[in-house]
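Here is the promised in-class demo. Please do not try to memorize the tokens; focus on the logic of going from shape to residues.
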């Protein structure tokens, strides 16, 4: 290896950001979910003092994470931590509705605990909502680390900047992609392989709305791709499997892809 290249590598390492280790990210997520949902907890929290200790531990862990990006945080670390904890109840209420949407919408779901502990869609949504809290508070990079944790574990890729309403349901989930400027209303259900993406990935479009808007009570079936910042799917619409959609549709629309299916019978060798 040439000395000039060695020097270049050393310089890059000297300039690197001191970002939190992936283990710290996962531990923080596990702690938050353990407080909010007993199904996730390894501890039996029975008394208020125990709960306060767990909350204090989460606050301390968040401070440690924020120290890594302190110079880029909007406001002080302490103010950010306080606001995050204050807003946690709102996130909890949203997640309860998400879990209920899954339980009520999936015949295979037997209980809320089963949904919370075993459904990858709920896990990805939970991490997204926690990440979105920090995203709105102006915390850089760490929200993406949160959602990439969920992406790696579930195959569901939700950008923390997306705006998602209540009673959200991702069924099965693998391969779902939801872009940064996506807006999703209430009571929306997505199946596996759905992409809510951009028509163009040009860098100059970074500050524009690049991803679609999905209004209330929309169902998007497996493999559908909906693209573009001006694309609006009207409320109570159904988007069929494998649809490629780049233009808006009116409320109560049904959009489907109709392939030609040919079945050839085999010869009877009997």
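The designed amino acids, position by position:
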């Amino acid at each position: 290896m040439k000395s000039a290249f060695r020097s270049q590598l050393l310089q890059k390492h000297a300039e690197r950001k001191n970002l939190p280790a992936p283990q710290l990210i996962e531990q923080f997520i596990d702690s938050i979910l353990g407080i909010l949902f007993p199904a996730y907890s390894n501890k039996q929290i029975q008394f208020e003092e125990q709960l306060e200790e767990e909350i204090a531990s989460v606050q301390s862990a968040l401070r440690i994470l924020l120290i890594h990006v302190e110079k880029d945080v909007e406001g002080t670390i302490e103010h950010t931590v306080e606001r995050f904890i204050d807003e946690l109840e709102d996130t909890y209420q949203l997640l309860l509705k998400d879990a209920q949407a899954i339980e009520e919408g999936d015949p295979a779901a037997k209980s809320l605990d089963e949904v919370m502990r075993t459904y990858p869609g709920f896990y990805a949504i939970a991490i997204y909502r926690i990440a979105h809290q920090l995203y709105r508070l102006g915390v850089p990079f760490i929200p993406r680390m949160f959602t990439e944790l969920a992406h790696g574990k579930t195959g569901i890729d939700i950008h923390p900047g997306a705006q998602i309403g209540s009673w959200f349901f991702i069924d099965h989930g693998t391969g779902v992609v939801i872009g940064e400027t996506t807006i999703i209303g209430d009571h929306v259900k997505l199946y596996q392989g759905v992409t809510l993406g951009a028509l163009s990935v040009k860098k100059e479009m970074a500050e524009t709305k690049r991803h679609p808007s999905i209004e209330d009570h929309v169902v998007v079936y497996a493999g559908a791709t909906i693209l573009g910042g001006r694309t609006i799917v009207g409320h109570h619409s159904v988007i069929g499997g494998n649809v490629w959609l780049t233009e808006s549709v009116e409320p109560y629309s049904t959009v489907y892809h109709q392939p030609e299916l040919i079945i050839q019978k085999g010869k009877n060798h009997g």
